[in-house]
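Weekly puzzle thread! Below is a chain. First person to post its structure in token form gets bragging rights.
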Amino acid sequence: MTSPVTLDRREGPYGEVVLRRRAEHYEIIANGTFLMDTSDGRSERLLIDAALAALPEESRTGASVLIGGLGVGFSLAHAAADPRWGRISVVEREEAIIDWHRGGPLAALSGAALADPRTVILHTDLVAHLRTTTDTYDALCLDIDNGPDWTVTEDNESLYSPEGLAACAARLNPGGILAVWSARPSADFEDSLRNAGFSGVRTEEIPVARGVPDAVHLAVRP
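Winning reply:
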């Protein structure tokens, strides 16, 4: 396996974040934990497609979406490539990641999407944004951790709590879709979604070369 080359390393309010290149692919590491790379992207694109498909047909054109986590830009680029989406808001708390997209090595992946007039980048913490904003969306597509059972920082655990899921529901329009990416399916999180009042709870799995499949958990705000 090719050894990674560190391109940038930053210390921020949430710890260390690192951008590495391994051969032709880029990797993001947070506090020593691998988050994502540019080698695939199927599950990040499914996060967007599954949310749109779960909306009522009459609501799919011009639907607004909040993407939680800019990451390597796959979800944003995929949403911006679909003319059916209206407002596309992206919440990213790491200034370094935003910089890597706006003028750094990841600009080639997201440049067109960032230039799209529908796109707005919000430099803030997702959990805080959900609890303080008055904006509402037709879909929340959240990918800030390796899943509800494997968070990047302890602060993120509150997103998957009853209070955090209530905040998600409050930010969704009636009939809106909550989609949550996970590195593995979580039956416990499905139960949490149902207990929080969501309906239509289901999980779509994405097979990977090794180990358990990636997953997208979907739920509807009644």
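Puzzle host: Confirmed. Bonus trivia for everyone else. The chain is about 30% helix and 35% strand.
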